[in-house]
Specification:
Blueprint (H helix, E strand, L loop, with lengths): L1 E6 L2 E5 L6 H18 L3 E6 L3 E6 L6 H11 L13 E6 L9 H8 L3 H10 L2 E6 L6 E4 L14 E4 L3 E5 L2 E4 L4 E3 L2 E5 L20 E6 L2 H6 L5
Parallel strand pairs: 5-13
Antiparallel strand pairs: 1-2, 2-4, 3-4, 6-7, 6-13, 7-10, 8-11, 9-10, 9-12
Helix pairs in contact: 1-2, 3-4
């Protein structure tokens, strides 16, 4: 792990060169350790794929003091269990009606649409980062057979709840927005609700599985077509 200065009141901790379940689990454990031991001087922690941004109160602590505390909080993370993190199952209505790019992904992988749907459900995905929009969780990694590049021309409007694939990542759009990912289904679960606490059902380090539901079940759970 490397600790580097990221600003007047910030450090960034690098846990590896690329994301992996083990690195993600270490970041999650680091967040817990830092909050437990340094809550009095921490303003915010921003976890990402293989790094953690630590923003601290410059009026109560200096760089030297915070670095020493970080070094203590980051000890013994190599033994963290890669299967840690809460597990959440998200329902998805997979169909050509809800997933207009299913056929394209199937043709690219020389498999059937049914295979795409089954393969997407078989994997357990790690929440590597949350960004782009509140509640947009970047999940990895998608099976190579259904990996697909971003669209050459992004759609101007993607529905809330759209389940999508881009390269080796998958995600659920938390709100109506433009987007260039390949759409394979719709999820009725709200990924961001400012009126709820917590406002998002997932956090970095959590594990996600997808489970197919019927059209009627999707509508009954609050989904919109």
């Amino acid at each position: 792990m490397k600790i580097e200065i990221a600003g007047q009141n910030a450090f960034i901790v690098y846990f590896g060169e690329k994301a992996s379940p083990q690195v993600s689990a270490q970041i999650q454990a680091a967040v817990a350790n830092i909050y437990a031991s340094m809550a009095d001087c921490i303003i915010d922690l921003v976890p990402s794929y293989a790094s953690l941004l630590v923003i601290f109160d410059i009026e109560s602590s200096d760089h030297f003091e915070v670095r020493l505390k970080l070094q203590q909080a980051l000890k013994n993370l190599q033994q963290v269990d890669a299967s840690s993190g809460d597990l959440l199952t998200l329902p998805v209505y997979y169909a050509l009606e809800s997933g207009p790019d299913l056929e394209i992904i199937a043709e690219r992988g020389n498999i059937s649409v049914e295979d795409v749907i089954e393969i997407h459900q078989q994997q357990e995905y790690r929440v590597y980062a949350i960004g782009f929009a509140p509640g947009f969780a970047y999940l990895g990694e998608v099976d190579e057979r259904i990996a697909a590049p971003r669209l050459a021309t992004p759609r101007q409007k993607v529905a809330r709840g759209a389940v999508a694939i881009a390269d080796r990542q998958t995600a659920v759009y938390p709100a109506v927005s433009p987007g260039g990912w390949n759409l394979i289904g719709l999820c009725p679960t709200r990924m961001f609700d400012p009126d709820r606490q917590p406002s998002m059902p997932v956090k970095v380090g959590d594990r996600i599985r997808f489970s197919a539901i019927s059209r009627d079940e999707f509508l009954a759970q609050g989904g919109e077509l």
